[in-house]
Amino acid sequence: MDLALLMGLLGFETARTSKLRYLLPRIQCSGSTAFRDAVVQGNELMLKLFSLFVKEGLHDKFQIVHVVLTDGDDCASQTSHQDFLKYQLYLYSQLPPQMLKTFYIGVNLENNSTVRQQMKQIIDCSCESAQYYSINSNGINEIFQKIQMQIGIEVQQRGLVMKNEHMTIGLMQEKYRPVVQITVNNYIVIFTLDISGSMENNWPKVCGAVSGFLDNLGENDLVLGITFNNQVNIITKPELEKKIQNPRPPPPQSNSNVPDEGYYCCKIF
Predict the structure, then answer these.
(1) Positions of the region Disordered (predicted)?
(2) Which terminus of the chain is less hemmed in, N or C, by CB atoms within 10 Å?
């Protein structure tokens, strides 16, 4: 099977044309939290991706960035914490250390000692390829910008001053550009996002932060979206995209069972 078609079927799409911008705001937060199951599913995709890239000689052309955001205790995963740690060790034993960067974001969890302890264990077994940020609700957009800078997108600020006889107004404009020293050709960004009920008030901030992240990726960068509550879904998979866009199934049409192959393709290959 063609690599572009296969990646499209897995749920990867180009950042500039990603449907995440309008799929995420349509999601209603509900349910509990299966954090570990969601991260494991993302890890499995990375291993599949790495295997494909090795076969195609592309394994040194991409860096995978995994952004995981949650705001609660994991109370719904089938994967135990100990099994999760073993899986993390296995993942980092299979992937070159420079290929994967994982950023865990905990929202309003600074007083949760259980989460702090578990995240420390997760980071300790991640071979220095993962970081954990504990933030409050107001820091969501800022932490996404910080991650962008860490993976190689630099923020430039330009000042503009407007004056009249009554007042002086200073404006700052942020501009993003790739850091010159970056040697990786392209990024693959996986967003694994908590949509449990407790995320409802913060969800618009998450949607805005993801949209801003997408705007600053290159035309050949790829993205994939995973959401989780008590269930885990790859929402950029074509069949799930359609469910989010059209909650009710459309009426049957002639030959509608045969999709246009181009719909599923990652266009960069």
Answers:
(1) 240-261
(2) N
